[in-house]
Amino acid sequence: MKNYELNLFGVKRELPFIDLEDNLAFASFVIMGDTELIMACAPKLAEKIGDVDVIITAEAKGIALTYEISRILGKKEFIVARKSIKSYMSGVVSVSVHSITTSGEQHLYLDGHDAESLKGKKVCIVDDVISTGESLYALEALVESAGGIVTKKAAVLAEGNAAERDDIIFLQKLPLFQKTDDGGYEIKEL
Q1: Cα(6)–Cα(157) distance, rounded to whole angstroms?
Q2: CA 105 vs CA 54, 98, 131, 135: distances in Å
């Protein structure tokens, strides 16, 4: 197989493979900018998320999805954890993050105003894909350091072993892949 065909609620996408180490690969899922896919997935995730006070995502791939979920749930706003400190930010709260889709250590930042709006609130973290959980853990730490209470963690896809977790909400499992001798890819058995 040269691409992985994903079918979410009748919306099909061909996902290219991205090689990792040890002949391991993942299918690259990018929902950012895909209005059709967001419109298909957001109502399903919103239904599963249900009652929360605040929704947060990390910059950047989950922003459009989080917007639509927030709109469906009748929220006036949602929070975006930034990957750099912006000049308008004050009273910044930050944590470190490692992810398989981003090389090296990164940091996530919340403006003090956003951090204050999390205090004592039931918070849902939204992401496009949950894989190793590193980004999710960083967002959890960020919310908790601001005094928020993470009650839901949601993503469109759970990749590899993440699909076995019982603490996340997701719409579909996304397998990991291994490279074959002929240069193709096959689903990696976990």
Answers
A1: 10
A2: 27, 5, 16, 11
Following DSSP, what letter does each residue of the chain receive, concatenated? --EEEEEETTEEEEEEEEE-STTEEEE----TT-HHHHHHHHHHHHHHH-S-SEEEEETTTTHHHHHHHHHHTT-S--EEEBSS--TT--S-EEEEEEETTEEEEEEEEE-HHHHHHHTT-EEEEEEEEESSSHHHHHHHHHHHHTT-EEEEEEEEEEEGGGGG-SS-EEEEEE--EEE-TTS-EEEPP-
Q: How far apart are CA 145 and CA 165, in angstroms?
A: 24
Tens digits of per-residue pLDDT, 12-43? 999 999 998 878 999 999 999 999 999 999 99
Distance CA 29, CA 7 (A): 12
Under a CB-based contact definition with an 8 Å cutoff, are residues 68 and 74 in contact? no
Fold of 33-174: Rossmann fold (3.40.50)
Lowest-confidence pick of 40-49, 60-69, 96-105, 148-157: 96-105
pLDDT (tens digit, 9 = 90+) per residue, 158-187?
999 999 999 999 999 999 999 988 888 999
Q: What is the pTM of this model?
A: 0.89
CA pair distance 146, 154, nearest whole angstrom: 20
Question: Who's near 144: CB < 8 A, 6+ residues apart?
Answer: 150
